[in-house]
Each structure stands twice: as C-alpha cells, then as structure tokens.
Design a protein that fits this description.
Strand order of the largest sheet: 5-6-7-8-9-3-10
Order of helices and strands: HEEEEHEHHEEEHEHEHHE
Shape: globular
Largest sheet: 7 strands, mixed
Number of domains: 1
Strand content: 25-35%
Helix content: 25-40%
Number of helices: 8
CATH superfamily: Leucyl/phenylalanyl-tRNA-protein transferase, C-terminal domain
C-alpha cells in the first residue's frame, strides 16, 4: 500500500491516484493534460442555492465523520454506477486524515449524514476528491461551505481534477497541465489554515461576496 508521505509528494508535483473501478485493487497515477480547478475568488453560486444555504437547513460539520464520508463517496448509486474509490484509496485517505492532511465537510439532517465531500490540504492548495448527496442540494451546500472556509483560511487553489456539469455551475475552469503546475507551485509556497469552525454570519457574508447566477 502507498504511504501518506508518497501520496503527498505526488500531489506536490501534480499527480493523484485513481482506481478504474471501486472493486479493483490496482491504482494508477493520473496527470491529465487538462486540469479542472474552481477559482476561489470567482466562485459562483446559483440563485436557488443561495436561498438554500441562507436557510441553514443542514447542520454543517467538518472532520467528524471522515471515514463515513469517503465510504459513502465510494458507493455506486443509481446515478453513478461505479466509482474510482477502492479499498486501498479509502484506507490511504483515512491515514491522511489521521495526520491532519485530509478533511471532510459534512451535511447532517435530523442526526443523519446526508451529504458531504472530502479532500487533501497541502500548503495553500486544496485537492477536492469526491462528494456525495443523499438529500437535495446536500453536496452543493457542502461545496459552498468548503469554499468559504478555503477563502477565509488563505487557500489560493482548489483543484477539482476534472470539470463536470455539476461543477460548471460554480465557475469551474479547465486549464492546461503547465498552467496548473504553475498555480500549484505558487499555492504550495503559501501557508493556509483549514477552518473547521465558521460562523453562519461568515457564510452569509461569503455568499454576498460571490457572483450570483440565475
């Protein structure tokens, strides 16, 4: 099994691991020619989602159920028949979490975990890995809370690996490998803090500062 140190070194040069299927053991290092990023300073929030976040429907917590989040991200669903998260990846990122390098943002509703995401923090870069949702808008709300924390904590790069339709609505962009590695190098030179706690007033202020989409 890979060690957390090897994985962090890989992230620092622009690589990340994936499995072809959730039930296969082999891992592959990925270094795509076109890389997905979500510009933190130009984050966009759809109008309807703004209303949902303001309502504070979900209780948002960080790092209280990391293993549950990654295991739920790994589960195939009706909409996503397969995932790239196998057992080795699950254990590897749990190890990263235990040394404070991986984090989760969780949506709780009536005491049940209904959505969330996880990723890796290194310098001023955050590498978003995967998200899941078992309630309407849960993963989207988790993403808003993530970006608010990253902006407040001094992060400059949010790596999404690839651009999806889900991320397009938030302003995701695709850049060439060389441009990504330039941004990565700059971000790794910075010191940032992943803020587990953030006041709802800060979330409202963050929403106000972002571009609104209809």
């Amino acid at each position: 099994m890979l060690s957390p140190d090897i994985l962090l070194r890989a992230y620092a040069v622009g690589l990340f691991p994936m499995a072809e299927h959730h039930d296969e053991s082999a891992l592959y290092w990925i270094d795509p020619e076109k890389r997905g990023i979500l510009p933190i300073e130009r984050f966009r929030i759809p109008r309807r989602l703004r209303k949902t976040v303001r309502q504070n429907r979900f209780q948002i917590q960080c790092d209280t159920a990391f293993e549950d989040v990654i295991r739920l991200c790994a589960e195939p669903t009706a909409e996503r028949k397969d995932t790239w998260i196998n057992q080795e990846i699950i254990q590897l990122y749990i190890n990263l979490f235990e040394i404070g390098r991986a984090h989760s943002v969780e949506d709780w509703l009536n005491g049940k975990l209904v959505g969330g995401l996880y990723g890796v923090a290194l310098g001023g870069a955050f590498f978003g890995e995967s998200m899941f949702s078992r309630a309407d808008d849960a993963s989207k709300v988790a993403l808003v809370h993530l970006v608010a924390r990253l902006k407040s904590g001094g992060f400059t790069l949010l790596d999404t690996q690839f651009v999806t339709n889900h991320l397009n609505q938030f302003g995701a962009a695709e850049i060439h490998r060389s441009g990504y590695k330039h941004l990565l190098s700059s971000a790794l030179d910075k010191s940032a803090l992943f803020k587990k706690e953030i006041d709802h007033r800060e979330i409202l202020d963050f929403i106000q500062s972002t571009t609104q989409m209809s």
